[in-house]
Amino acid sequence: xxxxxxxKKTINYELSGVIEECYVWQLDNFEKAEKAEKIIDAAxxxxxxxxxxxxxxxxxxxKTHFQTVSKDLHKSTDSLMKKLVKL
Length: 87
Known about the structure:
The chain is mostly helical. It has helices at about 5-30, 35-55, 60-85. The protein has one domain (about 5-85). Helix 1 packs antiparallel against helix 2 and helix 2 runs antiparallel to helix 3. It is elongated, with a radius of gyration of 14 Å.
């Protein structure tokens, strides 16, 4: 199992990648930039929720908890990227 620090870094890396892709899309489509802002807001909200879940102290099985957080991260990232592609 990865460390908590590595999981936090992974969360930061993946969701900041989504945000960066949104900024690149905004540069190419400046007339529709507000559409990407919604995806950026969703990425930030997802980041906050996932970090809060990682920081939970009263967890029965830490390994299972962190695996679930990791799976949710990948689902969230995939969902946000699909929304960006649809723009």
